[in-house]
């Protein structure tokens, strides 16, 4: 029987991995780099460069404006691919356009307009900052109250905690499916059902779950969702985000940014705005064609791998990471700051350590790429599609060795970075 702490055990896990061939389909310019930040920026698919080169040379360079006949459907085409293959939505319920923040604003404002007379928006104090900023702005402009549901920094939000924040004054609930800091997984179906019991709408942020955890939006009766394409979807830095609107809500909602791509007869160039039918009404302006092409290549690979297999590997990989942390890092002062049950977390975990910032900087200098989140969290995100078990093993061994040697103490504390 193989020692689970040995390197040979990680090699055996990779040999048995049904997704083991996928990392070779991504660019790895530095073969020695141990990349555990796929939940911030996904790797570059090898196919993306070739596809972009063709689009630039043939469609833009050769076709010029005539190529809009094929580009005009990109937002919906890539949206349908994400919807049906990644987040469990029906065709015609997902678009790719704008940024996550802009999409969140559009859907939150539309939802609030659809619940007149209600005065409260529910979120969490541990919600991703941009989400809270958008909600704070909307509440300030409309004279509404932003109410926090109870949330544990490590365990995330619970159904009971959200229920306690709900009453018939609540218009909208906005929460992340997977918590950005700890990786805690919220119970999307149960929270959605609880909000519906009091007549509220729910807007889910799937940025840290889309591509690694099945969302099952249609099955859960979810109302609204947003998410980014540059993390697990490997769309590239700044790639456009996606938004989801349940079919039954689409005609009821009118988003606040009225642009010509969301108009009913776009090329009639009419004087007055009339929203397009269906999901197209949530478009605004001209879509970023090259970025959409990059996102499509990343999503195609996810669709080929299958969201259920990605979820299984994400659970296995984070469980392996936790086993190594228990054995090697707990004696060095690290504490698991994520749910221990793999079914209760997404595809990343956090480890608390008083010198987490210094450890992070020391790792970066040694070819290991983690992330840091306050307070004192070393965040590790092995992406199921692109990370091998051997990378997890070697990264954790590096953390063990440098902290045991005290090497991280050579680096300034975090306060030096922000003063």
Automatic annotation (TrEMBL):
Coiled-coil intervals: none
Single Gene Ontology MF annotation: kynureninase activity
Keywords: Hydrolase, Pyridine nucleotide biosynthesis, Pyridoxal phosphate
Cellular component GO terms, alphabetical: cytoplasm
Pfam family, one: KYNU_C
GO biological process, one term: quinolinate biosynthetic process
Top-rank taxon, per record: Bacteria
Pathway listed: Amino-acid degradation; L-kynurenine degradation; L-alanine and anthranilate from L-kynurenine: step 1/1; Cofactor biosynthesis; NAD(+) biosynthesis; quinolinate from L-kynurenine: step 2/3
Cofactor: pyridoxal 5'-phosphate
Quaternary state and interactors: Homodimer.
Function: Catalyzes the cleavage of L-kynurenine (L-Kyn) and L-3-hydroxykynurenine (L-3OHKyn) into anthranilic acid (AA) and 3-hydroxyanthranilic acid (3-OHAA), respectively.
Name the UniProt record assigns to this protein: Kynureninase
Organism: uncultured Mycobacteriales bacterium
Gene: kynU
């Amino acid at each position: 029987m193989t020692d689970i702490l040995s390197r040979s055990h990680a090699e055996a896990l990779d040999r048995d991995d049904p997704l083991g061939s996928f990392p070779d389909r991504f660019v790895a310019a530095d073969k020695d780099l141990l990349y555990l930040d796929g939940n911030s920026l996904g790797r570059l698919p090898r196919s993306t460069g070739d596809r972009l080169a063709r689009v630039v040379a043939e469609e833009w360079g050769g076709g010029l404006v005539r190529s809009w006949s094929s580009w005009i459907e990109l937002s919906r085409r890539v949206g349908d691919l994400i919807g049906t293959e990644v987040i469990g939505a029906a065709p015609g319920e997902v678009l790719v356009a704008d940024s996550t923040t802009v999409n969140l604003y559009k859907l939150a404002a539309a939802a609030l307009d659809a619940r007149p007379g209600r005065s409260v928006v529910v979120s969490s104090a541990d919600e991703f900052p941009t989400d809270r900023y958008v909600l704070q702005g909307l509440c300030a402009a409309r004279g509404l109250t932003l109410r926090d549901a109870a949330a544990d920094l490590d365990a995330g939000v619970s159904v009971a905690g959200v229920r306690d924040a709900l009453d018939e004054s609540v218009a909208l609930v906005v929460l992340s499916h997977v918590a950005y800091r700890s990786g805690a997984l919220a119970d999307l179906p149960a929270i959605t059902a609880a909000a519906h019991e009091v007549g509220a709408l729910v807007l889910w942020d799937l940025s840290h779950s889309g591509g690694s955890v099945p969302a099952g939006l249609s099955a859960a009766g979810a109302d609204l969702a947003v998410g980014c394409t540059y993390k697990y979807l490997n769309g590239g830095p700044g790639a456009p985000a996606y938004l989801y609107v349940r079919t039954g809500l689409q005609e009821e909602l009118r988003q606040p940014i009225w642009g010509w791509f969301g108009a009913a007869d776009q090329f009639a160039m009419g004087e007055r705005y009339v929203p397009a039918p269906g999901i197209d009404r949530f478009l605004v302006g001209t879509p970023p064609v090259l970025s959409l092409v990059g996102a499509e290549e990343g999503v195609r690979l996810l669709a080929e791998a299958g969201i259920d297999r990605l979820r299984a590997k994400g659970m296995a990989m984070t469980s392996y990471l936790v086993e190594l942390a228990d054995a090697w890092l707990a004696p060095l002062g690290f504490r698991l700051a994520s749910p221990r049950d793999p079914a209760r977390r997404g595809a990343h975990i956090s480890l608390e350590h008083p010198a987490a910032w210094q450890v992070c900087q020391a790792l970066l200098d040694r070819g290991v790429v983690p992330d840091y989140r306050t307070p004192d969290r070393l965040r590790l995100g092995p992406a199921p599609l692109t990370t091998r078990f051997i990378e997890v093993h070697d990264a954790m061994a590096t953390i063990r060795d440098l902290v045991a040697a005290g090497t991280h103490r050579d680096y300034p504390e975090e306060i030096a970075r922000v003063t």
